[in-house]
UniProtKB/TrEMBL annotation:
It is a multi-pass membrane protein. This is ABC-2 type transporter transmembrane domain-containing protein. Residues 24-156, 497-692 form the ABC-2 type transporter transmembrane domain. One of its GO terms (molecular function) is ABC-type transporter activity. It is found in: Membrane. Keywords: Membrane, Transmembrane, Transmembrane helix. One of its GO terms (cellular component) is membrane. InterPro entries: ABC2_TM, Phage_infect_YhgE_C, Phage_infect_YhgE_N, T7SS_ABC-Transporter, xxxLxxG_rpt. Its main location: membrane.
Length: 711
């Protein structure tokens, strides 16, 4: 009997009762349940994160920046609410903590109270990083914690970009301000250069002026020296003048004292009081003198004149005694005393005249000969006295005033001369100081002229430096960017997120289920083959009992499971494609490849069961575990320990996973062909080993009749 017929007979046994049919149906659906349910449950977990409750605590108190209110926490809350990343529930800190502990929330995100202040500190002197606080509880779910770290990394990056945009916007605004200020500084430098040019010309004029001033100071120094010499001479002369004026003042003082004393004497008072009478008497004397001169020839004899002289003298003496007795020694002089005094005066004058007349008449000393001339002189003098008598008192007073005025003037002259002497001394001292000052001025002007020379040189260098400064500022202003609002917004966006990720997935898997389908499909087919050989014998008993060739016996035990496996794969693929929406890049290739996978897995499981009997089922399960851990179906195999990396190239599921990835999502078909070759080799090898095992099973042994282990 041929192998396909033997296989058909083996399958036909499942149609002889309800239970076998149910077992066959369960066998067909077992890979479907194993693979489809797993993929269904993990099909798109990231797309349903909005069902995960997460506590959101916004404790941000906000901040004020440049007079504007900043509430970065509110902005983040609005962004998170709109993103619908999780099922955000705004709550308090204590409720969030309790909810995270009892599993009400899988995560909690806390925006601290100083979050806005820390964000705003980026523009201050002490910038601080604003930190969002995320709390997870792996006791609730570990995967959610891992997912949250990825999600919150995006949230943190978005918040950082927003804060960076604000920061860079201020920087670019500062650039514009700096550009404007530098431009103003450059214009100021131009004006400074103009001013320095004017100052440079002024420095030249100052130097020329100081040259002339130095020449003038030299002449001044010489002139002041000459003045100092002249002041010395003036001081000496003024000293002598002061001495002379003092002496003159002393003389005038004595003169004034004498004049004033004379004016204040009784005689003077009498003359002033009786000037009119004196004038009258002088007139009379002049008349008498004239008469006497006319009657000189009528002079009496010597005896007569002698007698007259004696008589006049006696009369005058008697009258004098009477006057002394009655007027001078009396307690109360009588009223006639003034007249008596006049009479006494006249008597004495008469006595004197009589004596002189006698003398003259006697001519003892020749005076008689000179008598006419004396009479003329007497007459002349009397007439003058007569003429001056009315103004005699006033002239005496005038003379006194003149003498006093002369004395006062002499003293003022003396004082002036003393002051002149003092002034001359001070002038001498001042000119001495002025001479030293002129010398110092001359030296100072010389130094100032040297300084002006250096100043002129410095102004030249300053002018050159200001020109370079203005040029540098203009160049700097050109290099400092001056952005408009649109350009500033564009650059702010680039600087806030300078490195973009241009992610383009080649042969992208649209969802989580598509990515894991190459891992779960071979797993379910392996389990299907493993369970199938729990219902089907690995070696067809009929062929084995009939002594059919070993290869035919192996094929008779292999083909029924392959047929069941193909149906399992078809059912699984139909549900994945039409039930869950799995898209196959190479549908026909995938179907053919899964048939090859089914044949290969059935051959391997068949050999293990045929060779090791009930223990082979345990080996099949162990081999499944080794393939799942070394196939690289979830994480790259390189991330696994070295043991699994060593097993990876020697197990068929590694090539199945690799081939299915390229068939489902597309890519280089070389991996598919390599997997086909490997699976074909595994199937051929397993069938050969099964045939070898069938050959040995044609001879029954005690172990076959009494197996050590039965499952």
């Amino acid at each position: 009997m041929r192998s396909p017929r033997l296989a058909a007979l083996e399958l036909r046994k499942f149609g002889r009762g309800a239970l076998p049919r149910a077992a066959l149906v369960a066998l067909l659906l077992l890979p479907l349940l194993y693979g489809a349910l797993y993929l269904w449950s993990f099909w798109d977990p990231y797309g349903r994160l909005d069902k995960v409750p997460v506590a959101l605590v916004n404790a941000d108190r906000g901040a004020t920046v440049d007079g504007k209110r900043l509430t970065a926490g509110d902005s983040i809350v609005d962004g998170l609410r709109d993103s619908r990343t999780f099922r955000w529930r705004e709550t308090g800190a204590e409720e969030a903590r309790k909810g995270l502990e009892d599993g009400t929330y899988y995560l909690s995100l806390t925006i601290p109270a100083d979050f806005s202040r820390r964000i705003a500190s980026s523009a201050g002197d002490s910038p601080e990083t604003g930190a969002l606080q995320v709390r997870t509880n792996d006791a609730n779910n570990y995967i959610v914690g891992s997912i949250s770290r990825t999600v919150f990394s995006e949230v943190r990056a978005a918040a950082s970009r927003k804060a960076s945009r604000s920061f860079y916007d201020r920087i670019f605004v500062s650039f514009s301000t700096l550009h404007g200020k530098t431009q103003e500084a450059a214009e100021g430098a131009d004006k400074l250069g103009d001013g320095i040019g004017t100052a440079r010309k002024g420095a030249g004029d100052l130097k020329d002026g100081l040259d002339k001033a130095a020449e003038g100071s030299g002449r001044l120094r010489s002139g002041v020296g000459e003045l100092y010499g002249g002041a010395g001479k003036l001081d000496d002369a003024s000293g002598r003048l002061a001495d002379g004026a003092g002496k003159v003042a002393a003389g005038t003082r004595k003169l004034a004292d004498r004049v004033n004393g004379a004016a204040a004497s009784p005689d003077a008072r009498y003359v002033k009081e009786h000037a009119r009478e004196i004038g009258e008497d002088a007139r009379k004397v002049a008349a008498e003198a004239r008469t006497l001169r006319r009657h000189l020839d009528d002079l009496p004899s010597a005896a007569t004149t002698a007698k007259l002289a004696r008589g006049s003298a006696a009369g005058a003496e008697v009258l004098g005694d009477s006057y002394a007795e009655l007027c001078e020694r009396a307690a109360e002089p009588p009223a006639f005393c003034p007249k008596l005094r006049k009479a006494l005066f006249a008597a004495r004058q008469s006595a004197l005249g009589a004596r002189e007349l006698d003398t003259l008449v006697q001519n003892r000393n020749g005076e008689l000969d000179a008598f006419p001339a004396k009479l003329d002189a007497l007459r002349s003098g009397a007439e003058k006295l007569r003429d001056k008598a009315p103004t005699l008192a006033s002239e005496i007073d005038a003379a006194v005033r003149d003498v006093n005025a002369l004395d006062s003037g002499a003293h003022r002259v003396a004082d002036g001369a003393g002051k002149l002497h003092d002034g001359a001394g001070k002038l001498r001292d001042g000119l001495g100081t002025a001479s030293k000052g002129a010398a110092g001025l001359d030296d100072g002007l010389g130094k100032l002229r040297d300084g002006a020379d250096r100043l002129q040189g410095g102004m030249v260098k300053l002018s050159d430096g200001s020109s370079k400064l203005a040029g540098g500022l203009h160049d700097g202003a050109k290099r400092i960017p001056d952005y408009g609002k649109d350009e500033r917004d564009a650059r702010t966006g680039v600087m806030a997120d300078p490195v973009g990720l241009a992610s383009r997935a080649t042969h992208k898997a649209p969802n989580y289920g598509t990515g894991f389908a190459p891992y779960f499909i071979p797993l379910s087919l392996w389990v299907g083959a493993m369970v199938a050989y729990m219902l089907f014998p690995p070696l067809n008993r009929r062929a084995l009992a009939a002594g059919a060739p070993a290869w035919r016996t192996a094929l008779a035990g292999w083909l029924p499971v392959v047929a069941v496996g193909v149906l399992q794969a078809a059912a699984l693929l139909a549900v994945l494609c039409w039930g869950l929406g799995l898209h196959l890049a190479r549908a026909a290739g995938t179907i053919g490849f899964l048939c090859l996978v089914t044949a290969s897995f059935a051959a391997i499981v068949q050999w293990l069961n045929a060779r090791f009997g009930p223990a082979g089922r345990i080996l099949v399960l162990m081999l499944l575990m080794l393939q799942l851990t070394s196939a690289g179906g979830t994480y790259p195999v390189q991330t696994s320990p070295g043991f699994f990396n060593a097993l990876h190239p020697f197990l068929p599921m590694s090539y199945v996973v690799d081939g299915l990835r390229h068939l489902i999502t597309g890519g280089d078909p070389a991996a598919v062909w390599r997997a086909c070759a490997v699976l074909a080799a595994f199937a051929a090898g397993a069938l050969a080993l099964t045939a070898w095992t069938a050959r040995r099973r044609q001879v029954w042994t005690v172990r076959d009749l009494h197996p050590e282990l039965s499952l």
